[in-house]
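Hi Y.,

Following your request, here is the sequence exactly as I used it, all 161 residues.
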Amino acid sequence: METTPDAIAAAVARDQAGVLSRPQARAAGLSDDQIAWRLATGRWQRQHPGVYVVSGASPGWTQDLWAGHLAVGRGVVSHETCLLLRGLDDVHVPRYPLTFAVRHGDHHRIPRIVVHQLDDMLPHHVGELDGLPVSTAERAVVDLAATVGRRRRSGNRPGDF
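Below is the corresponding structure, written out as tokens. Let me know if you'd prefer a different format.
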């Protein structure tokens, strides 16, 4: 197995739908200059601040999900996105914006991503799917019911934020 910084970074990205974060690239052994060179030459593209997609990776919802997760940081996949990841079809809930939950105080403004600040998400409310921290289906239904109710009262359609 090759252990160069490029090989390590590529392996991380491969496990994350072609996406990796700046801290992951640095942990693989790449310097800031090396990361900048990969961006300048098109080997990587910037998806979000500090989040990159490796050239040639297949774009799609899973890649967007990983990029969103890395951009949010300590977020948990939640609400509609959790239910989609757990198998609900997108006829019932929208694929975008992606939804994550974080503790209060973690503020994020990321295009096509909604970040809910929650203080009551306990360890038993979170599992893992495909390497991502994901709320339980039961928790996602409760969280979604709370937010859909607010949207309906304000006249917004599901998916509008």
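The longest helix spans residues 137-153.

Thanks again,
Q.
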